[in-house]
Amino acid sequence: MNLRTLVLPFLIASATLLAQRQLTLRDAVLKAGTDLAPERIRGLQWITGSNTYSYVKDSVLMQGSVGKSMDAPIVHLRALNALLPDSLALRSMPAVEWLDRDRFRFTHAGRIHIHDRATGSLQQLLQLPADAANLDMAPINTGMAFTQGNDLYVQRPGDREPIRVTSDGADGLVNGQSVHRQEYGITKGTFWSPNGEGLAFYRMDERMVTTYQLEDIGTKPSTFNAIRYPMAGQTSHQVTVGVYDLRDGSTRFLRTEGAADDYLTNISWSADGRHIHIAHLDRRTENLRLVRYDAVSGSPVATLLTEHDAKYLEPEHPARFLRTRPGQFLWQSDRDGWDHLFLHDIAKGTTRQLTKGAWNVKEVLAVDPKEGFAVVEGTAAIDPKVPTGALETHLYRVDLASGRTTRLTAEAGTHHGLLSEDGQWLLDVWSSTRVPGKVELRDTRTGAVAKTLLTSKDPLQDFTVGTIELITVPIANGDHANARLLKPSHFRPDRRYPVLIYVYNGPHVQLVTNSFLGGASHWMLEAAERGYLVWTLDGHGSAHRGRAFEQAVHRQLGVTEVKDQLEGVEHLKRYPFVDAGRIAVHGWSFGGHMTTAMLTRHPEVFAVGVAGGPVMDWSLYEVMYTERYMDTPTENPEGYANTALPALADQLQDDLLLITGGADDVVLPQHSLSFVKACVSKGIPVDFFDYPGHGHNVRGKDRLHLMEKVLHYVDQRLLPQR
Predict the structure, then answer these.
(1) Architecture category of domain 466-718 in CATH
(2) Mean of pLDDT values over 152-162
(3) How far apart, in whole angstroms, are the C-alpha atoms of residue 380 and residue 267?
(4) What is the dihedral of CA 89, 95, 98, 101, to 10 degrees?
(5) Distance CA 226, CA 146 (A)
(6) What is the reported pLDDT for 385?
(7) Quick one: which of 16, 271, 451, 600 has the most CB atoms within 10 Å?
(8) 50 contact partners, CB below 8 Å, separation of at least 6
(9) Coil vs helix vs strand at 499
(10) Cα separation values, 248 from 165, 243, 245, 252, 550, Å
C-alpha cells in the first residue's frame, strides 16, 4: 500500500444507473442527521445493576443481554402514556436513565418521573418551574439542581417549593452556570457529590468585564442586548466555587488562593464526598496546581500535583479518584509530549505513567468495579511521516497495576465505547469510510466480538455520489498532515477540475478522520457533483497529533497554518486533473480567519473565498482562548500585528464574501465589520452578508440558505454557467 495516499472508495456510484438519485443540497443540509445518516441504535446504554442493555426501537424501550440472541420489550410508549395525563402525553420514547435493574427516570415537560417496570407504576418525583435551565440531577434521587435567571436552586423530592441556594444573581453575577467561556473542559456549572448530599457550583463575577452590544432587530425600533465579553489583554471575570450542603442548607465558598482571574477548572469530588478537587490554572496558562479542599470547611488541604509548560497548558479532564483506593487518582496529561494517563498516589507522593508512546489518550470511558483496569479511547500509534494513526479512534484496556495496555479494537475506524457495570463487556459503536456504522459487543479481556447488534446500511447507496480519498501530505518541520479529497462520481482523470478547499486548521479540531464519509459533511458530496474536487487538510495546530505538532502555532495563530494549507495546494497541483487557476476556499470561525488570511497573503494562488464568522483580529477575541495561544497583546505585539487581517485588506485581489451572524456572541460582528471598513478605506471591493438574529453559526432551516449562498458565490466564479 502506498502510505502517502490511502484511497478509500466509499460509495463509488455510477451515474448511469437509472435507480440512482441526485443528492440535492436541500437534502444534504436538512437530512444529514436523519434520513441520510447511518442507522443508529437509539438510546443504547447499560442497565444499572445488570449485564443487560436497553435501547429504543420504534416506540418500544427494549432490553438486550449478552447471552441471549432475542431481545425483549421493557415498556411500550402506549403504556407510559396510559400512566400520564393526556396533557402530558409523550410523542416519542424519552431518554431514560437507569437507577437500578427495575427503575428508570426521565424528564418530560419540566417533570421528573420514575418508572418501575416490575410493578408497572409511574411516579412523579419532581416538578420544575417552567423557566428552569441548566438541569443537573443528583446521582441518587436527592434532588435536581437548576438555574432561574442567574441564581441556583435545588428541588428535592417531597418539597413543595424549590430551595433557593443563591440570591445575589444579577447582571454580571452568575451562579450555577459554566464559566471561563466553556474552555478547559468546562461544560456546566454544578457538580454533585457521589452521595448527592453536597453540590459544588460556580459563581462568576463579571461586573468588571467590558460589555458588548448586540443589536436585536426583532423590536421596533431595534434594541441592543449587552453581553460581557473579555477581549485579549482586558480585565477578565473572577470565579469562585461554592458548596451547598443539602443536609443543613448551608453554603460555604472554597477559600481558593492565587490571582482573582485564575481559571478554576476540572472540578471533581473524592469518592467519599469529603473533598473537592480543582485544577487551578494561572491566566498565563503556564502553571497548574491540582488542589484538594475540605468540602465542609472550604479550606485547602493539599496541592496534589503541579504542572508547568513554557508555552501553555490546557487541562480538560478532572482527576478521577478511585473508590477502593481513595488515596489514588487517575490524571490525564501531555507532559511527555503526548496525552497519556497517569496514576498518582497521594500517601506515597508518587506518580506512575500508565500509557506511553506516540499516540493520544482521548478519554477515560470507565474503570471496572474492582478498579483493576480502565477502558480508554485513544488514537492509533502515530508516526510523524505516516500520521494515519491520528485518523482513527480505538478502545484500549489499561491495567492500573502494571500499565499494560491492550488494544481491544482491531478494525480500522473510529470507535466509541460503553463499559458494562461489571466491567466484562463493552458496547463498541464505530464507523469508517468503508463501514457506515456498526455496533458490536466485545469482551474486555481480549476485545473479541461476542455479538453484532447492528450493521448499518449505506444511507447514500441510492444516490449518485463520488469517492473519498484520505491522503498524507508533507508539510513543515518534517511533519506530514492528513487530508481528504472528494471527487465527483463523473470524475475523469483526463479532465481538469476546480478545487473547493474547506478549512479550519485550528486548535482542538480534527476534520479528517477514518469515519463515515471520512468526516466530511454531506453538502461536500453535493458540491463535488457540481464539478469540484473538495479538499480539506489538518495542518499544524489541529488536534490529536501530539504537543509539538499542536504548539507549533504558538504566538502566531494563522501563520504556520496558512503555510501548511499552501503545502496542500502544492500537493494538489501535482495532479494533472487539478485546475490550479480555479481554487476556492471556505471556512467558518477559525476557518474564516484562515480563508481571509489565505486570500490576503497569497492572492496569486486563489480565485475566490467565503469566510464565515471570521476572527479578523485576535485582540478582539476572548481572553481564555486567545491568550493561551497568543499571550497578551502587550506580551506579543508583533504576533498580534502580524495576524491582524484588516491591515492586509489592500492585499486582497480575489472575490471574498464575508458572512456573520448579527447576534454572534463568540466571534463578534465587529471582526467582519472592521475588515469591511478597512477594505472601504483602501478602495478594495469586498462582499458582506449578515444573518440577523443568528449566533456564531447559522442553524436550523436557515442553514440551507447559508449553503446555497456559499456555493452560489463560488459557482458564479469557478464553474461554467450552471
Answers:
(1) 3-Layer(aba) Sandwich (3.40)
(2) 93
(3) 29
(4) 70
(5) 24
(6) 82
(7) 600
(8) 101, 421
(9) strand
(10) 12, 12, 6, 12, 48
